[in-house]
Write a structure and sequence with these properties.
CATH topology: Rossmann fold
CATH class: Alpha Beta
Strand content: 15-25%
Number of helices: 9
Distance between the termini: 36 Å
Order of helices and strands: EHEEEHHEHEEHEEEHEEHEHH
Strand order of the largest sheet: 3-2-1-4-5-6-11
Shape: globular
Radius of gyration: 19 Å
Structural class: alpha/beta
Number of strands: 13
CATH superfamily: NAD(P)-binding Rossmann-like Domain
C-alpha cells in the first residue's frame, strides 16, 4: 500500500513509519521539522520504499494514489505546543482539514491521532470515550486541547457529510526510544535528569496520576484501528490502564538508574494540569482485540538505554 504519515519524523510517527516499512508498504513521510527530527528517520532514508516530503500540513498537499493517511502532525508536548499556540491550533484544525480533503481526493482511509487531552482535567475516572471532558477553552493548554477536539469534530463531520473513511484514536501518555530529550514530557524529563545527576523536578506534591504506554503497544493499536475489518471509526482510547503517581514514576526511574546522584525536588503545579489520567480501554479490547502488553519497568529500561546512548554521543 501507498501510505502517507504526516508528522512522520516525530516520536510516534517515526516508529509508525518503521513498522509500516517492515510490512513492505510504500511510505511517504511528511514533516515540517517543527518538532520532528531527521535523526529519527535517518535509517529509513536508504530505502527505495521510503520518501521524505518536507511539508507543513497547514498548507494543502497534493499526492495521488494513496491508500492510507495517518495524520500525526502536531506539536504534542506542553513546551512545544505552547511556544506558538496559534500555530498549534492551525496545525490541529487547518492541518486536519487539508488531510481530510486529501483523503477525499484519494478515496482512502484516514486515521486521526487525537489525544487524551480532549478529556481535560477529568471529573470521570477512568476516562471512557463517552465522557465529553472538562476542558478550559481559554487556558494556556487550550490551543492543543481544543485544537484536537475541533479536529475530531471535523473528522466526524466529513464522515457524516462525505462518507470519508475515518478512524480516530485518543492517545494517552506514550514513551520510548526516539523521544525528544527536550520535549518536556515527564518520562524523558526524569530520565535525562537522573542520567545527568540533576534533581528530578516533580510538580505539585507528585500525587497526580498518569498511565504510561510503551510506544510498541501504541503502534500495534494504531495499525489495528486503521485496518479493522468492522470499519469501526472510534473514537477509541489507546493507553495503558496501569496507573502511577508522578512521584512513583520518579522513584521507579531512580531505582533503575542506581548510579544516579539525583534527588527529587518539588515545584508548583502548572496551570490546568490534569490531576488524574487513566484510559478505559474496554472499547479497544472489544472492537480491536487490542490491549497493551509492555509493563512499565520493561519499557523504562529500553527508554533509559536509548537516552543513555544519546547522552554519551
Amino acid at each position: 500500500m501507498k501510505i502517507l504519515v504526516t508528522g512522520g519524523a516525530g516520536f510516534i510517527g517515526s516508529h509508525l513509519c518503521k513498522k509500516l516499512l517492515v510490512e513492505e508498504n510504500q511510505i511517504i513521510c511528511a514533516d515540517n521539522f517543527y518538532t520532528g527530527r531527521k535523526e529519527n528517520i535517518s535509517d529509513l532514508m536508504q530505502s527505495k520504499s521510503f520518501e521524505l516530503v518536507e511539508h507543513d500540513v497547514t498548507n494543502p498537499l497534493d499526492i495521488s494514489g494513496l491508500d492510507r493517511i495517518y495524520n500525526l502532525a502536531c506539536p504534542a508536548s506542553p513546551p512545544h505546543y505552547q511556544k506558538d499556540p496559534v500555530f498549534t491550533w492551525k496545525t490541529s484544525v487547518i492541518g486536519s482539514l487539508n488531510m481530510l480533503e486529501l483523503a477525499q481526493k484519494n478515496n482512502c482511509r484516514i486515521l486521526q491521532a487525537s489525544t487524551s487531552e480532549v478529556y481535560g482535567d477529568p471529573r470521570v475516572h477512568p476516562q471512557p470515550e463517552t465522557y465529553w471532558g472538562n476542558v478550559n477553552p481559554v487556558g494556556v493548554r487550550s490551543c492543543y486541547d481544543e485544537g484536537k477536539r475541533a479536529a475530531e469534530t471535523l473528522f466526524f463531520d466529513y464522515q457524516r457529510k462525505y462518507k470519508t473513511g475515518i478512524c480516530v484514536v485518543r492517545i494517552f501518555n506514550t514513551y520510548g526510544p526516539y523521544m525528544d530529550p527536550e520535549d518536556g514530557r515527564v518520562v524523558s524529563n526524569f530520565i535525562i535528569q537522573a542520567l545527568k545527576n540533576d534533581d528530578l523536578t516533580v510538580y505539585g506534591n507528585g500525587s497526580q496520576t498518569r498511565s504510561f504506554q510503551y510506544i510498541d503497544d501504541l503502534i500495534q493499536g494504531m495499525i489495528a484501528m486503521m485496518e479493522n475489518e468492522k470499519r469501526f471509526i472510534g473514537p477509541v482510547n489507546m493507553g495503558n490502564p496501569d496507573e502511577f503517581s508522578v512521584l512513583e514514576l520518579a522513584q521507579k526511574i531512580l531505582s533503575l538508574i542506581p548510579e544516579s546522584k539525583s534527588k527529587i525536588t518539588y515545584k508548583p503545579l502548572p496551570s490546568d494540569d490534569p490531576k488524574q489520567r487513566k484510559p478505559d480501554i474496554i472499547l479497544a479490547k472489544q472492537k480491536l482485540g487490542w490491549q497493551p502488553k509492555v509493563k512499565l519497568e520493561e519499557g523504562l529500561i529500553k527508554t533509559i538505554d536509548y537516552f543513555r546512548e544519546i547522552l554519551e554521543k
